[in-house]
Specification:
The strands form 2 sheets. Strands 1-2-5 form a 3-stranded antiparallel beta sheet, covered by helices on one side. It is built from 1 helix and 5 strands. It has one domain.
Length: 67
């Protein structure tokens, strides 16, 4: 995953993230996660054994790219 992913998500006031455009994410050993528009991911919620919200929080807020 890359920081470009930050452009596809908006950070919400409760710490969750909402997808603003369809995204396909490859994680682990080739696993794929498809996130649809308006789908919200919350901290601690695992998608394919991966905490996407934690990744977005760490990557996007650190770089000032949080939507």
């Amino acid at each position: 995953m890359t920081p470009d992913l930050c452009e596809a998500f908006r950070r919400n006031s409760d710490g969750s993230w909402t997808c603003t455009r369809p995204s396909t994410i490859t994680v682990g050993a080739g696993g794929t996660i498809i996130i649809e528009i308006d789908q919200t991911v919350r901290p601690g919620e695992l998608l394919g054994d991966y905490d996407l919200a934690a990744y977005l929080e760490q990557t996007c807020t650190r770089n000032g790219n949080a939507g």
